[in-house]
Write a structure and sequence with these properties.
The chain is an alpha+beta fold and 171 residues long. It contains 2 helices and 11 strands. It is globular.
Length: 171
């Protein structure tokens, strides 16, 4: 349940804003889960930077959003190191231990925050190969990944409503 809590919260916030007549807002929870309601007046989309999981002042890319959610699961903020090994806060339910499959960051764009949050966590836990199979099995999904030795960053765009409303640019 905690893996989707922020996604659910941004969905509720966006729904409340929309009910109050707000047509443009970017709901941001912990810089890891967003909902883009409409677009800012001066642009077609909201620009959301995806932070590099190992260098907080660097970006992996910028994703342009409108009427969509974005969630990132990463081991960049909640972790500890022991004997030179980094242990993240995301646990593999199959083992009960912190995930140790080489994935350091997964970002998913979807129609809802719950969906984006759930898929980001699932792909993070499943790893680069099983996770990509899961995402590719989803309808309307595009997948991009970046691999460096011992680390994977995965971007998954799952948006069904309009073909061009979610764009991606890696910088």
């Amino acid at each position: 349940p905690i893996a989707i809590a922020k996604g659910h919260a941004v969905d509720l916030a966006a729904r409340s804003l929309r009910a109050d007549g707000v047509r443009s807002a970017l709901v941001n929870l912990s810089n890891s889960t967003f909902y883009a309601l409409g677009a800012p007046e001066e642009a077609d989309d909201w620009r959301v930077a995806v932070r590099h999981p190992r260098a907080a002042d660097e970006q992996l890319g910028v994703i342009l959003l409108s009427d969509a959610a974005l969630a990132t699961s990463a081991d960049s903020e909640q972790f500890f190191e022991r004997d030179g090994v980094r242990y993240g806060h995301i646990l593999d339910p199959r083992t009960g231990s912190p995930v140790s499959n080489g994935v350091v960051s997964v970002t998913v764009v979807a129609d809802t925050g719950i969906e984006a949050d759930a898929l980001a966590t699932a792909v993070f836990v499943l790893g680069p190969y099983e996770g990509m199979e899961l995402i590719q099995a989803e309808d309307g999904t595009r997948l991009n990944s970046s691999h460096k030795p011992n680390s994977y960053a995965v971007f998954c765009l799952k948006k069904k409503t309009t073909r061009n409303s979610t764009k991606e640019r890696h910088e």
